[in-house]
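Quick one: structure tokens for this chain, please?
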Amino acid sequence: MRKKIVAGNWKMNKNLEETGVLLSELKAKFKNTPSVEVIVAPTFTNLYYASQELKGCDILVAAQNMHQAEGGAFTGEISASMLKSVGVELVILGHSERRAYFGETNELLSEKVKTALRHDMTILFCFGEELEDRKSENHFSVVESQLKNALFDLNEDAWKNIVLAYEPVWAIGTGETASPEQAQEMHAFIRKTIANAYNTKLAEEVSILYGGSVKPNNATEIFAKPDVDGGLIGGASLNAESFIAIAEAL
């Protein structure tokens, strides 16, 4: 049975005081559902605080990024062991903004994934095509290439620590809209691609989240699709009521 997951990526939002308010609101509204895993990803500066505040609560904490090296002269970067030392066991890698603004490549992400795995971390691995790829009908080949070049050299056992998050970059902040049917079409393709590279059993066990502007008013329809196992939520995760409503739609 695949995990159902809703993860909130707070991006570069919420200072310490605002983080405390949002976490308090989430704890007050959160009703643990064993079938759904809920994750929040605050900024680096608030990870320790969040992990302490959420002790005894079933909401998990993830980092938004991580460096591939174990340590050294990498000013401003954060290592896997640093994350684990503050109670963080999950990390988002490959987010479309990291790829677009910071030049992260599939090859670099492959290194980051391997480092996270060495530290027994769970990885929320993001990927997806841009508007130009979709318009030129290259979206399937782009997604296949991102998966193949970053993840398909891993052994089958490593996939126990990997959650996939498909981001149709063309449908985020562009005025374009991805339909639930388009989400399902790509998620089914992703699962088939994994099955071809590994086997059907593994493909059926991997959770694939949808990261294309999920909101309370479209979550139920999107999550009803058979190959959509939850969502990676951006803006809507900054509001406790909206985020919990999305989680409850699973």
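The chain has a mean pLDDT of 95.
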